[in-house]
Amino acid sequence: MTALDELVEASRLIGADPALVLHGGGNTSVKTTVADVTASPVEVLYVKGSGWDLATIEPAGFAPLRLRRLRELLTVPELTDRQMMNELRCALLDAAAPDPSVETLLHAALPHPAVLHSHADAVLAVTNTADGAALVRMIYGDRVVVVPYVMPGFRLARRCAELFAATAHAGTVGMVLLNHGLFTVGAGPKQAYDRHIELVRAAEDFLDARAPVHSRQSTSESPRAPIADLAAIRAEVSTLAGRPMIVSQHAVPFAGDPGLASLARLAGRGPATPDHVIRTKRVPLVGRDLAGYAEEYRSYFAAHAAGRDLTMLDPAPRVVLDPALGMLTIGPTAADADIARDIYAHTARIIERAEALGGYRALPAGDIFDLEYWELEQAKLRRSRGSGRLTGEIALVTGAASGIGRACAEELLAGGACVIGLDLVPTPADRPDYLGLQADVTDDEAVANALDAGVRRFGGLDVVIPCAGVFPATGRIDALDPAVWRRTMAVNADAVAALLTRVHPLLARAPRGGRVVLVASRNVPAPGPGAAAYSASKAAATQLARVAALEWAAEGIRVNIVHPDAVFDTGLWTDEILAERAAHYRLTVEEYKRRNLLGAEVTSPAVARAVVELCTDTFTHTTGAQIPVDGGNTRVI
Fold it and tell me: Would you state the pLDDT for residue 446?
């Protein structure tokens, strides 16, 4: 096994433990010798590349740099951030490698072959106290070098190099950076990892003995505030942020049942480590005064940005704590909101342990501000941000497990939206922006429960696409089965009416205006014999959508309709039915599929593209429209 292979293994072990690192945090490195293209030996530092997560990192995630050049850079008195990152890229052996970690020079400064860095909860609970340095020495003696807080980057690397050279000895196994995290060193990644776990366990044992926390928040459900309240909060948050935001609801992460005063006391101290600020802001909002929070943020910016050429970030909170709402976490995407959730849940545990140890103490606001507006941290955040036209928006699709409904869900996700997908047999998806839920659209209670779950997951609703439908067996009116008629009307019309009634209060609060796109049918403008129940039910739903367009336009809600025809890749069409219908018209199956003016095969993705486009800004000024997606039909035209 090569040194790089060993580093990958140790890095994944660190990354797999959320009590050590979260969502791309931490970094690792190993120093080794490789042959360059001239076959000459070169000392190399492999260091974690920016954008890679330790839990899943591959060898390609480590940037290889010329160690000699890095050591030369450490002799320079000063480097700006831009200069440092440029020099690091110039030191790469592989131009295609990821950007090296901003802490690359710190890794290079330590003489040991392997270096592992984490933001271990237990270590932060010790350091983030008034006597943090003394407590660290009490736990570890002189086995670690203690480094007072310095902002990450070139100056921190230089400071660590100086302190390590001055105080390290043969028994030194690492460094503790106050309010930042833990570094361990070793002859190889395994030794550095073993030392890392040993030091973290020592901190945990110390906390258990000196500051036990006996009672934790149970895994009970989040407070059940009405979903309309969540949608209203999301609307206000989105206004402050200047774009639609995702708002996800969770239980309050602090132990017991703290009221507003206790939450304000616990939560108003600042993040456990300053790089969390780009995900959580410096402090959460306690309560619901979003306007007050934004004004305080503007004052915070003005106080610390004076004399600096900085543009203020949006003043919307990323974490809200409220006894009735629980914890709300906020971000441009569901993944961002989840990152804020995970970070603040760990922050709450750190705060509680530090409080029991004598009092939690975060860095001063000025230090947090410097990290929040650090160019390198903002670049990291920009790389992770979604850029789709529907990013931050939330769509509900019925019939989302197959056919046109599934294609609509996939097109929405590709555009950056979060999707709540309802179906009798939901499609599971291992991704944060999709919530597949089981619901019969004719079961009002099931739909209400699904809507409740979806809004608590994402915060509101911007788009509704009623797509679930049934196409009963063909038959003449004089042989119509009343049960078939009622079932078809229940699914294709009644369920749409009930759904629109339920979603209206949420659509009225959509940050960019609500949108409904009904998937109807060519049978509405041009019905065919033998499909009375289907044609009538789709016509009823179409009329309902037209009335909604009239009634809801004043609230900024757009309601449009698409009329697909001959979409054969859906569950409504089997091979047998296709063959039967083709034979009826004396055509082959392929000819039958293209039996339209354009000679085009109409597919579910083609319909979905039209549906989703109606939800974008392209159709901002369109409501009440009926758009055929049928390849051209003489009867419709």
Answer: 97
Catalytic positions are 534
Nearest to 237 by CA among 326, 323, 305, 337: 337
Sign of CA dihedral 368, 370, 372, 374: negative
Give 313's DSSP letter.
Answer: P
CA torsion angle 314 318 322 325 (round to 10):
110
CA 286 to chain centre: 22
Q: Which two tokens stand for residue 103?
A: 């802490």
Nearest to 561 by CA among 499, 519, 525, 617: 519
Instruction: Give tens-digit pLDDT for 594-613.
Output: 999 999 999 999 999 999 99
Encoded tokens for 155: 């100056």
Q: How far apart are CA 578 and CA 310, in angstroms?
A: 63
Report the distance separating Cα 447 and Cα 399, nearest Å: 12
**495-507 vs 444-458: helix axis angle to the nearest 10?**
30
What are the pLDDT digits (tens) for 193-244?
999 999 999 999 999 999 887 655 444 455 678 999 999 999 999 999 999 9
3-state DSSP call for residue 558?
strand
- Dist CA 81 CA 86 (whole Å): 9
In the numeric block, the tokens 């020592």 are attached to 202
